Amino acid sequence: xxxxxxxxxxxxxxxxxxxxxxxxxxxxxxxxxxxxxxxxxxxxxxxxxxxxxxxxxxxxxxxxxxxxxxxxxxxxxxxxxxxxxxxxxxxxxxxxxxxxxxxxxxxxxxxxxxxxxxxxxxxxxxxxxxxxxxxxxxxxxxxxxxxxxxxxxxxxxxxxxxxxxxxxxxxxxxxxxxxxxxxxxxxxxxxxxxxxxxxxxxxxxxxxxxxxxxxxxxxxxxxxxxxxxxxxxxxxxxxxxxxxxxxxxxxxxxxxxxxxxxxxxxxxxxxxxxxxxxxxxxxxxxxxxxxxxxxxxxxxxxxxxxxxxxxxxxx
Amino acid sequence: xxxxxxxxxxxxxxxxxxxxxxxxxxxxxxxxxxxxxxxxxxxxxxxxxxxxxxxxxxxxxxxxxxxxxxxxxxxxxxxxxxxxxxxxxxxxxxxxxxxxxxxxxxxxxxxxxxxxxxxxxxxxxxxxxxxxxxxxxxxxxxxxxxxxxxxxxxxxxxxxxxxxxxxxxxxxxxxxxxxxxxxxxxxxxxxxxxxxxxxxxxxxxxxxxxxxxxxxxxxxxxxxxxxxxxxxxxxxxxxxxxxxxxxxxxxxxxxxxxxxxxxxxxxxxxxxxxxxxxxxxxxxxxxxxxxxxxxxxxxxxxxxxxxxxxxxxxx
DNA sequence: GTATTTGTGACAATAGTTGTCACTATTATA
DNA sequence: TATAATAGTGACAACTATTGTCACAAATAC
Lengths: 315, 315
What we know:
Shape of chain A: elongated
Structural class of chain A: alpha+beta
Oligomer: homodimer
Distance between the termini of chain A: 88 Å
Helix content of chain A: 25-40%
Number of helices of chain A: 10
Radius of gyration of chain A: 27 Å
Largest sheet of chain A: 6 strands, antiparallel
Strand content of chain A: 25-35%
């Protein structure tokens, strides 16, 4: 093995291990410890962030940073990566505890000049727009950590009825249309609930000793199954215009209920929890002429009641 | 200079240049051509995708792919990059002519084991959700190229009135809520218009000889300036409940108009383009009891008209 | 005090590298 | 067809770099 190859493989090896000794590497690469010491010195000079501890249980470590070894990306791949990361700037809050812009700067800086030129040309010509929100989401990383590690989190949640303290166990977090949501098991309601993260006014790991449930089988990929199961249901049927179809596409709860016709119009059909009628009434009023509810009667009644109330307010 | 360093720098040099000769590199690195030939052979063996052409105007080139040299990312940076790219999977159509998933696989594959483990833990716990759209956007790359290179594009556009052929000069393209839009100068209307890309049924570079305008000063970053400026304004005043305040906080157009009181309620106050009244009427209807419009009268009238229409529909 | 780790310098033996040389092959162009 | 410009190959003497061994130093946990 040539020295160049050995250095390259050594770079990948130290990248992979959290901690290692000179002796260990010497055995693995079948060279002397002196040679490994020299090689590590040379890697340091090449920019690999190594540091060492002398003494028992000592050894070498790579600083927090992980080196991405040389990768060949096509120009299109590099451009896709760049603009995907560039889109993160629209989020004032992210659960990653660093500026995503530092990642982007590094990537851009090291990319070859012609790809950089291409990116510069495109920068003001393409964007993934995410609505800029005034809301604040300061507890995203606590919630995400709670979901990953199955922890109980104490939150103060602001709803219509005011601020309440709750114990929750998060399933995950997701961003939609610039807002962050957290489906979680609520110990107060003893059921899965969807929380809007800007309404979480405080969050910290619970210290009261509440035992977490085993929710490993639940995740964002099967979040439709997160809906409450012991509820009364009614069957829903709503006619939609083409515009109504588009607006329902943007709502995740419609995913299994939305049907389309060739001409672009469509309909919603399926079961709905009776407890959701107030929310749905207001939702379909918001769709205006683009939705016509035909079933269930209770929903139509609620819509009519609200329309009358609104008419009175504007008389 | 040690051989290892020379190889590393040579990797970066060939990465940067589109095309180069052995002689040129030998001069640049102050070694013989024989040594450069050997070095290039060794780079090949290390995986750099080089290919050569013999004869006049020959030389070496790096295949389409560009090598990203070793970069040290923090774990958080790597995770941010990964999930930003992962979010691209929600787009069935992208203007980048490759699968963004191949970029992501490469990135993931070469990242060190512990970061990979972390990503795996997080994969079903965090997501940037983009609505899944049935619409098709097959001409994104043509439009983007048109914007970058200031080209005139012939399109067939489907609007309410049917399909029309137009010549446009794109300013750029952007994705919002899963749909792609293209602000462009329309030669038919002799003004800037916003086109929805799923309604562009055909697009190709114009061959009729229409001269492009110089639109270099226009781009997505100043697209608010793309809107028509000769508009009539009216003054808006809306009382909001606490819930109404929350829901307006989530809207970007309210940024300069929203005022809050100590008790959590608030109001919207400011000027609005008269052309926005239909949109705003439906918006405030969707807020229901949480908003009460007090000014302008034209908006109140539109709201009332829509309420009457809806009541008739549910009678 | 002992054991375990990193660390340093020196040197002989060995391996690898370099530039020069002579020659080959390919290709565009006049 | 000849020429020029490019990549390419093998060989070899001279030179450089690398390696492992050795002796010793320093730091640290137990």
